[in-house]
Specification:
The protein is α+β, with helices and mostly antiparallel strands. Helix content is 43%, strand content 29%. The protein has one domain: Dimeric alpha+beta barrel (Alpha-Beta Plaits). The chain is built from 3 helices and 4 strands; from the N terminus they run βαββαβα. Strand 2 and strand 3 form a beta hairpin.
Length: 94
């Protein structure tokens, strides 16, 4: 299942936390299960990850939280598959 992760610092991070956060990011990217984007002129990193379930994200999110980074987790799916589900949900709601 795919998720979008929005990482935002809680404030100005101490240098030690920024270094640890950078090392954690390198470790995650080396596994090849995510695509990450750094927003220019904003304190925001956007990652797209593919994991079996949301529970698998918790260790990384907890590590980020300890470093002063809040992470919003958004489950997503490709638009091609979502259309049929939307139509079904609309039909059931009507």
């Amino acid at each position: 299942m795919e998720f979008i992760l929005l990482h935002r610092p809680v404030g100005v991070l101490p240098l030690e936390n920024m270094k640890a956060y950078s090392e954690l990011g390198k470790k995650i990217l080396s596994r090849g299960k995510s695509i990450s984007y750094v927003a220019r002129s904003q304190a925001l990193i956007v990652c797209i990850v593919d994991v079996p379930n949301a529970e698998d994200l918790m260790p990384v999110c907890e590590q980020m939280n300890f470093l002063g980074i809040n992470t919003e987790v958004i489950p997503v799916e490709k638009a091609e598959g979502a259309g049929a589900k939307w139509e079904k949900a609309l039909a059931e709601a009507a």
